[in-house]
Amino acid sequence: MGMIDQYIYDGTFEGFLSSVFEVYERKPLVVKIVSERIATENFFDEEHIIYTDQVKADRVWKGIQTKIGKKAGDWIYRAFLSEKPDRERVLLRIIKKGFLGHRVTEDYADVDVLRLSNLVKMVGREKHRMDAFVRFKLTKDNVYFAEIEPDFDTLPLNAIHFKNRYADQKWLIYDRCRHYGVYYDLHKISYVKLEISKDINTSEAAPFYFTHDEMHYQDLWKNYFKSTNIPSRKNMRLHLQHVPRRYWKYLSEKQP
Amino acid sequence: MNFERIKEKLNILADAAKYDVSCSSSGSKRANKNKGLGDSSGMGICHTYTEDGRCVSLLKILLTNHCIFDCAYCVTRKSNDIKRAAFKVQEVVDLTINFYRRNYIEGLFLSSGIFKNADYTMERLVAVAKKLREEENFNGYIHLKSIPGASDELMREAGLYADRLSVNIEIPSEKGLKLLAPDKKREDFIKPMQKVKNEIIQYKSEKKLIKSTPIYAPAGQSTQMIIGASGETDAEIMYTSAYFYKQFKMKRVYYSGYIPISYDERLPSIGTEVPMMRENRLYQTDWLLRFYGFDIRELLNKEHPNLETDIDPKLSWALRNLEHFPVDINKADRRMLARIPGIGMRSVHKIIQARRYRKLNWEHLKAIGISMNRAQYFLICDSSTFETKDRTAAQLKSLIMGTSGSKWRGAYSNQLNLFGSNAPLTTS
Ligand code: SF4
After folding, report:
1. Which of A92, A154, B152, B362 is the most exposed place for a label (fewest CB within 10 A)?
2. What is the domain count for chain B?
3. pLDDT attached to residue B423
4. Cβ-based neighbours of B203, under 8 Å, separated by 6 or more
């Protein structure tokens, strides 16, 4: 049994594309691309550290977009954001198939295409949920602030949506699981690494961070949510299917 | 802002508005402009769901629940002894903007009881929309429910600010209308619909010549019918619906199961169950007409004036027309694929794409996500075993019913248990 080459990269999309570049460059027989967060030492694999290289990443990205297609590029990026342990394996196979002329966004009977399309669907659904479930609160600094804990790393996708929508207000969306945020300053969005104290969510601390009217609007919204319900049609199963409990934490209408 | 007072009004006027089931916020092409607030060029988002499982996308309120009319099926009717309230124009604007900025909503759905007269009321609805667009540079979604009998001039103006306009027919037949809403005349609904339709047509043709033509109701118009209040058959309801789709180019017709609200003898008495299953079947029929290429006469006719409640209308059609089956998955056209029970339009699309690369067999079809317990009896594919023995419609039906637990049946019996309070119905 021959050795497996393990390409270890930094977990970023650019890093993954750089690894793909190296696969084409070095032509290993059997290769596994692994994010450094997940990589574990083992005796059978030969480890190679792959350094993220913007130029190489760009070349691969351009290649994907022109040779495999824009839609395929978009799918590959979205599937990558799923953070699923098999993403590198599936995406490498997809990219190889794509460069060979295979239609990777159409052939639903191919296992890799099917997996790709499932990942894309999962990420898309979560992205859509975050677009819906973000609840901004107006801080005393006049920034609309929201926290999220998405199942997948959807914030880069959400950022574009919110930039188009809230062009005339400053906002910050913070991913509490991944410890980074996106900030919009009325001109551009920027990615920010930061730690935000958990107490910002407590009702005791709220008056310290948020405007006076903010509490009133949350209260009005909660009231609206109650008034618009039709009790004789109550269907909690359906309700929970649409708004699973794990998302309630940041939904103003679901706070006591 | 006096938040306590606003809260009280909001409770009354949201409660009165909730029976309008439309909550769509899609179909508009209004993008953010001049770095203003909002964007409705996307798909429309449900920001949350009520405990009855309905999408909350818009702030849905009445401007007022004072009304000079006395429609029997409506909670806002003049003779009903309830708390009344009225928003000021600016209050609605402020609420909308502040909810929107917090990402609670996609926009506003504004309706009203009729105070003084139709135009006086409509003018105020239009004033809200105008303020939102012109003073707040708001590009979120606005749905105005037009007041029956509103003048052409106001309907024209309304469409310049609103994304969607609607007038609810509520009662599917003219005789029902006469009985339950004696103040209203059918032409009062028809006239504003006709006006909106004409304006949309005119907008589209002018737009081709002059790019700067002001946009008119980009998300089109819709209407709603109450189901089970006035004794119509499913056929009567759906033929009316088909007529409105065709005649007025409706984007959507909504069906709202009647929720008993009064002891009026003309109506189902309090305690009668909300016909939710029937409502669901009507929606399914509506989808078959709009997206699956069915003709209304295939689904409902003299022999079949009502939909079956235990199976969906597509399966019902298939069982009545077994001579069209089995369908060959690898050869059939889109239209026939769409008629196979258990195969939705998404799957049709995937089948058509995937079969360009290989002949599809059971495994492929399963992977694509087809509901096999239905579909297997109606198709053949690239496999050697088939479930297409000669069976009668009745045999097939019991086979399918035996294996497929209707996701609805569970929810439905649940409904019955929980059916306790009686909530009122609809406005304007
Ligand atoms: S349906 Fe409209 S017009 Fe009739 S009572 Fe209700 S609010 Fe008034």
Report:
1. B152
2. 2
3. 31
4. B213, B215, B216
